[in-house]
Every structure is written in structure tokens, then in C-alpha cells.
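Complex 280.
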Amino acid sequence: MQITSQTKTIALIGHPIAHSRSPEMHNAALQYYNLPYVYLAYDISIEQFSDAINGMKALGFIGWNVTIPHKVRIMEHLDECAVDASEIGAVNTVVRQDQKWIGYNTDGMGYLRSLKEEGKIDVKGKRVVILGAGGAARAVGYALATSAVEQIVVANRTLSKAEQLAKHLEKWTKTDVRPIYDCKQAIQEAALVVNTTSVGMHPHVNDCPIDPTWLHEDLLVSDLIYEPRQTALLQAASSIGAKTHNGLGMLIHQAAYAFELWLGKQAPIERMRSALTERG
Ligand code: NAP
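Predicted structure with NAP bound:
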């Protein structure tokens, strides 16, 4: 694309940022429609944060993405937050709408869209085990809790964090949400297991968040990790005939939803996917 005096900027701010794949996905989508925007990543420290936000507002940005460690801090700089962002307690996408700055969280919706498209599961009435109770678990938990699942079990090595998350999610589902440490029994009764921990992520690719013998063939095993695409958990699931779903789809769909919020156009999912997979 040609950069002219009409070209505008959309950004990602976070710290660190060098590993991010968002610029590849978003620039591919912007170029697909030949839109006069570029998407750039900025490494912004906590000390620089307020100045950076004021700068983006003054420069007429239509919005930006926010990642670690600023997803909560950003909320006090916005006029409003959408329900999902308020309930998850974090914002990953800011959108300028009618002269206001609105915060969204596209992770939960991104996960659900990816699960539907690739996991081919209807979670309604199903029992789900979520491994982990961090930021990603909050987004995925909220998305599942608002999708009429029958039960959510939150398993985490720090039980108090599982208890906190379960209490929060209970507001959104009619059935019980249980915090536990040992999820062996819950996995036997579940249709979906979602790993939201970082266990198994590059470079610790041989690590598995649970004992793989607890898995069974009727499960869909979903892992939010996308590097590697096939984690030790997903390999163990495949080897016994269970269905698997990796984190790449969530990464693409959370970006796609942000693109739609900023530009009001359907995101070119396959173009965004190729932008990621072509480089590996
Ligand atoms: P986080 O807030 O730091 O939470 C990490 C979670 O992993 C916590 O529950 C933590 O347990 C658990 N954990 C970490 N090390 C562990 C270990 N050795 N054994 C057992 N549990 C362990 O991180 P996050 O932002 O939720 O991200 C978690 C993962 O999701 C990362 O791999 C990230 O790349 C992935 N993710 C993917 C996408 C996507 O688009 N695909 C989006 C967001 C995140 P404690 O509470 O006990 O510390």
C-alpha cells in the first residue's frame, strides 16, 4: 500500500511487544480492503502510558489494541466500557465512537467464534473444565458462562484464584461453577477441557498441564497456546482419538472482531490466517 497524507494509524500498545503477531494480521486485513490505515506496535512502559494515550487521542486514532501489562490500567482513560470488558475486568480493544472512547474485550468472543468454527462443538448444556484462572481464563470463562453451558469447573494450582474466578463467573450461569485443585474426576464428566495456563508454551513444549491419562476420547481438548500449534496436551488428546483445537483461531478471531469494531467491515479471516501461517 502507498502511505499518503490521508493514511491513518491504528496501534497496539503493550510491554514487551516485539513478539506480537497482531501487525501482520491487521495490516493484511487493511491491505485486503485497500484501506488508508497502517497498524503499528508500540512498546509503552507504565511511566509513558498516560502520555501515549493522550497522544493517540490527539492524533485522531480511530482506536487501538491494548495488551499486557496495560489491559486494566487503560479502563480509567476511557469514557465507557462494553459489558464484556466490564465483566472480564480488562480491555484489549479501544474504539472511538461518537466522540467517545469505548473499551471492549474481544478475547472471549474471539474464543467462542474460533471454537464454533474449528472445534465444531455446541457448548450449550455441556460440562466444561477450565485449566487456569488468569486473565485468559476470565475472558474464556465469561464467554462460556454466557453460552448456557451446564457446568464450569475451574482448576488452578493456586486454589484461591480459582475460587475468585468461580465466584465471579457464577453471576453468569444458571448452574454451579466449581473451583478445584484436582480435576481428574471433572474431566471424566466433561465434554470440553480448555487449557488457559501457559504450561506447554514455547520453549517448554514437553510440559503438560494435567496427567494425560485423565483424557478420554469423547472430549474436545482446547488449548489457548498457539506456539507451538500442537502442544503436549493436544498431542496426548489426538493420540487417544479426542478432538483438538489450538489457540491460533482465538488469536485470529479476537483480532477480526476488533477490526470489525474499528472499521465496520467483515474481517477477511482467511487472509489474516495466511498472514500468520505463511511466516510460520
Ligand atoms: P496469566 O494471567 O499469567 O495466567 C496464567 C495461568 O497459568 C494462571 O492460572 C497460572 O496459575 C497458570 N500457570 C502458570 N504456570 C503454571 C505452572 N507451571 N503450573 C500450573 N499452572 C501454571 O496469563 P494469561 O494472560 O491468562 O495467559 C495464559 C495463556 O493463554 C498463555 O499461554 C497465553 O499465550 C495464552 N493466551 C492465548 C490467547 C490466544 O489468542 N490464543 C489469548 C490470551 C492468552 P497460578 O494462578 O497458580 O499462577
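Residues 107, 132-137, 156-158, 161, 196-199, 201, 209, 224-226, 247, 250-251, 254 surround NAP (CB under 6 Å).
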